[in-house]
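Supplementary notes (optional reading)

For those who missed the lab, this is the record we used. Protein: DNA repair protein RadA. Length: 466 residues.
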Amino acid sequence: MNLYSKILKSLYQRGVAIANKSKDNFICIECGYESSVWRGQCPNCNSWNSFQSKKDILEKKDILDLENLTYVEEERLLFDLKDLNDIFGGGVVKGSVTLLSGEPGIGKSTLALQMADQIASKYQDVLYISSEESANQVASRAKRLKLNEKKIKIISCSDLKKILKALKNHNFSMIVIDSIQMLYDSEGNSTLGSLSQIKQCASKINLFSKESNIPFLLIGHINKEGSIAGPKFIEHLVDSVLFFQGDRSSAIRTLRSLKNRFGSTNELVIFEMKEEGLIKPKNLSQLILQNSDLSGTTFCITIEGSRPLLVQVESLVNQSFKTSPTRLSHGINFNHFMLIIAILEKHLSIKMYDKDIYLNITGGITTEDRGIDLAIAASLISSYYDIMIPKSTIFIGECSLSGEIRNVYQIEKRLNEAVKLGIENAFISSVEMNFKNINLYKIKNLKNLMDWIKKWKIQYSKEKIG
């Protein structure tokens, strides 16, 4: 085809497109006058630059009154484990897309398979799409976990176009994709794993999920900084974001909700990794309380999402012989850890500038609850003076820059959990409240805390505070 023919074809196509346009395609936003072509000035009201395409203007019928709308409860799929239902806000909503992320080898695929098994046992078949492993590798893991293999279907493919084409002929209760970073769309021009490819694949999956009313669980990787790999667009696109984490030296794993359009965020589920898979640990709090007969060890009841959780804080303060002392923290933000050290140095005249200081929240648990400040301060003071704190004692409070102890939210819920665990003593801020079945010790500032710790001696560790 020569150049002249191409020009004629282009002009013909343009003419057809113009002819197919509906009449009155533009409207004056000032008076409502309609025209088939755009005009600089409205012939009816003489307004300038007031014509807009009708496609760009919402009609009155598109604007709805909130009071006239009725709430339609979402259809949900329920897991056998109640904690999993809670982290989704009451179960997986049909037509929703969830992103599950975490470090490599932490157990994301194991968790996804177990979630698929629980859904498949109650509803229709679940499809597991593996873009990283072969079907035989997934089947081997399923046998080790002793899952219901008859109701879990497997596809080992990374071409999204082929996958979506195959899904149109089947109906599944849920679809798992492992992983979103390894999918590619053959209709796109970018390379596998690029930001544009991930964005394009996520958009098509989200659209298909809404049209088919099938929930999707997407497994995602994290980068070196610990955040979810890929464009931030994915986190905005999906309905829920779950983060799976844990200490490799520990069997404890935590699943935390970072985003949820159908429920509360920051919910937490704790698992224990065993040979048969992830299980809910029994008496985790009692297990934590058993190992506490050391200086530098304290306890606190934190609020993770909507549930109280007992956490153990342990610290080591030791003389440093280096020019720059070592400061390490695990399970809490490092900058906040350094802030508490600075507060102790300022208001208690404790010299920590020449000390190596290590802090750890045991069990691989990470928390951002400021109610743990008082427990951290007590742990550091205890380790500094080598004084053991009774294990039947918890510390709940926020440390201000002035050295005062502030109250934290849901203090009653925390104390109720402490009573259930058999804890006898609780140090809190000087808030006006009474509580049965537990001894409350109200302190105003860190100096009061220091006075209490200096009273304790190792031989009194198992006796009642007096």
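If you only remember one thing from this example: The chain has three domains: 21-70, 76-279, 284-454.
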